[in-house]
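Box 4.2: Ligand-aware structure prediction
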Amino acid sequence: MGSIEQTAELLLCLSPAEVANLKEGINFVRNKSTGKDYILYKSKSLLRACKNMCKHQGGLFIKDIEDLDGRSVRCTKHNWKLDVSTMKYINPPGSFCQDELVVEESKENELLLLELNPPNPWDSEPRSPEDLAFGEVQVDKNLRFMILMDGIHPEMDTCIIVEYKGHKILNTVDCTRPNGGRLPMKVDLMMSDFAGGASGFPMTFSGGKFTEEWKAQFIKTERKKLLNYKARLVKDLQPRIYCPFAGYFVESHPSDKYIKETNIKNDPDELNNLIKKNSDVLTWTPRPGATLDLGRMLKDPTDSKGIIEPPEGTKIYKDSWDFGPYLKILNAAVGDEIFRHSSWIKEYFTWAGFKDYNLVVRMIETDEDFSPFPGGYDYLVDFLDLSFPKERPSREHPFEEIRSRVDVIRHVVKNGLLWDDLYIGFQTRLQRDPDIYHHLFWNHFQIKLPLTPPDWKSFLMYCG
Ligand code: FES
């Protein structure tokens, strides 16, 4: 059995003199021997501490110049803000909590920052690696797997460890921060996404700072940060082999030409080169039809039969796609009877169940090019009291405008689908004022909608 004890790791020890130097409010401190940074918040009654590492993608916090109370810090990567007096993120509002460290005083009046580490579940009952034959994997007692939550979107994203005869494969695809960053080291194969650009941000945004130049620059630096983040994760976890494998998507429909041309994604070879520069980890860029014989490669990384490449000239993407079957389903929703009655709007948003939140959204049904759809709906939803006013209310309120292609939004409404279908497929265009990510709103429509679709049958019976 591996250890199942929780362990406490000492991350920082401040001498009594250093403790006396702590000021009220926010203190940035560094452990000089490890080079790691921490944040300490001191008030008359309270001392709180955390790593200076953003929960999102590990960015560094600095003083937030907009913070007048001396409580919040700003992440240098994507501007998330953390209130260190509560350890709650204030941007995105109502979203995440930072993992806190334990603060203790030693007998010698030093201040100790401790991290409590739960036991690693993948270390319990360890199995010694056995030889594998190509293609021998069977679902039996030799195979086990563990699903781990994402630290940022726990309800939505997961990663998985699969183990066969003592060999582990870690797949972290599309997790922002898999298992809060606590992951097994030295697995035999690690697979992850690499491309970025699936969420539509910022290419589907306009207004305010979202000019073409800003978006192009943002994408350039963001994708680079993503590459560096992945490369660092691989370096830290030291898998035997690393494979960037999810992210080969292309916006192929002609109506998505703008996204295709501007939403530049990372190249897996570029990531692998970065990894090779910084570590001894073996990398593999898979191509359609290629094979990696993991057993062979683990035994002898130079084995020429370990990787079989596809025939010369094999394409990564197809030349053409048959969109017909998909569009047929979407189009079927446009003429649905429910949309003859404007009361579908109230019915739908009441069903969705999101309210008591100060946000006003203008929803506009559009054609393929995001111009208003002739005869389509254009309406306001005030989520504070779930009303549908004709004009924006006079109180101060954050505002978003969501333009959605009519076939897609109606398909989503009719079938009670999650709004992932709107933005992951680049089917919306957004403007927001102020420029804030409303985590509570999007999270609700992304994952918290009722499991059964609206009861349109009884709606039609009663709406006359
Ligand atoms: S890493 Fe901090 S906001 Fe993204």
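In the box above, the bound molecule is FE2/S2 (inorganic) cluster. The chain has a mean pLDDT of 92.
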